[in-house]
Amino acid sequence: MFNEFKEFIAKGNVMDMAVGIIIGAAFTAIVKSMVGDLLNPIIGLFTGGLDFTNNFVVLAGEGPYASLEAAREAGAAVFAYGAFLMAVINFLIIAFVVFMLVRYVNKVKASMETKEEVVVEVAPAGPNELEVLLEIRDALKK
């Protein structure tokens, strides 16, 4: 059983998947930083400095709270529509960046395949079956 597990882990597909997950996690951190540190401030400029994450409605609890964090710390039930909206915007930006990355990788891969196809040399064609049979017939006639 241990040997079967070792063979399963050693297969290329499992290792490729593990590498993909690790790189994906690192790439997610990069894209989240890009969204949070670069794009959200630009979006804030266009919306007049509005940060959607602190938009919420208190469903149950005491009075007004200064921020969503303060409401959650107080244990109030909140409808955090702003945080959800920012999560949707972040998802769309991340999905677009991943799409552009995959599109670029596919273009590079396709250009590499066309280069490989050009390098393939065509072997000289030998005689076909009819020519061989005719040659045998002529040799037998002699």
Short description:
This protein is 72% helix and 5% strand. By secondary structure, it is mainly alpha-helical.
Task: Explain the overall architecture.
With 142 residues, the protein is mainly alpha-helical. The protein has a domain at 1-49. It has 5 helices and 2 strands; from the N terminus they run ααβαβαα. Strands 1-2 form a two-stranded antiparallel sheet. α2 packs across α4 (81-119). It is elongated, with a radius of gyration of 32 Å. The mean pLDDT is 80.
Structural class of the helix and strand makeup?
mainly alpha
Question: Strand arrangement, largest sheet?
Answer: 1-2
The counted number of beta strands is 2
- What can be said about the biggest beta sheet? 2 strands, antiparallel
Compute the number of helices. Answer: 5
Helix content: over 70%
What's the layout of helices and strands?
Blueprint: H1 2-10, H2 12-46, E1 57-60, H3 68-73, E2 77-79, H4 81-119, H5 129-141
Helix pairs in contact: 2-4
Features:
142 residues, mainly alpha
